[in-house]
User: What shape does this take?
Amino acid sequence: MLFNKNFIFLIFIFFTTSVIAEVTVIKFNYFDQNRKKEWDIAAEINFPKQQLDQYPVIVVQHGSSRNGYKFKSEGGKSDEFSKNVVKKGLENGYVVVVPDMFYNGPDVGSNKGSFPNGNQANLVLKRILSKDKRLDINNIFYTGFSWGGDTTLAYLNNFYQSDRFQPFWKALAAVEPSCNRVQQPVKYRFPILIVKAEKSHYAPKPCIYYKDMILKQSNNIDLVIIPGVNHYFSSDMKEVKGMAVNACADNIVIKQLDGTWVRADGQPSSGKPQECFGTRVIAGKNYKKMPEAADEVIKFFNQYKSK
Assistant: This one.
């Protein structure tokens, strides 16, 4: 795993009545295995006002679009879910880290086959964070929304269970993943949460199926379904044409331990994302219950935070 040791720190101190005491922006690059080139990342590190010897940490990954959150400086962006996790995480004494995976570039949006390797990038970020003695490296949590939720579940790949990745993420919380393309479960050393929206165009059904697969390996996993809202936890819903990885909901695609892909019913699969591309999208972005989704994540992490 490669990363540029000459990353940049930019620090801003806020003396306000808010829950933020300090904001640090870091920049780094790494060779991205998906895009086969050097890739630039910026990450905003938000410190709470509470004074602790070491802080628990949440890394929160945006989805395919970065609408709703702007870094305090340096032009980075993230999404509405990240904004809510920053607020609620700081209130609960976490340092909240917000990576911009598309820094200096456009959103992926509907171009679902062109994502960088978010798992690789966030492990580089985790390594950088481990150098800061204020942060508790044994208490780093990971969550993400939409594509960020998919990167969360991608950490269930057996590759990431190697001891070389210790300490592992303390817990994972995948928010609105598609669960159409998943990893064959093994036994994990951390708890897992999946948060779904009842009316999402990424239907809860495949995530329920996947949760049951994970449970069969004697893992600690919870699934929460928030009623009456779409993918964006919004109540102003309207069905439109679009692009989403949701066409395999009735027969999900599973990456096996040997690297091959199969459908849940045993039929072979190409493993390509395009196999699961669909056009049904439920639009609407009033984000009515996005704070509730963030609350579920913080509540889950609080259960496993070391004292």
Helices lie at 80-91, 118-129, 147-154, 204-215, 290-304. The two ends are 31 Å apart (CA to CA). DSSP finds five helices and 16 strands in the chain.
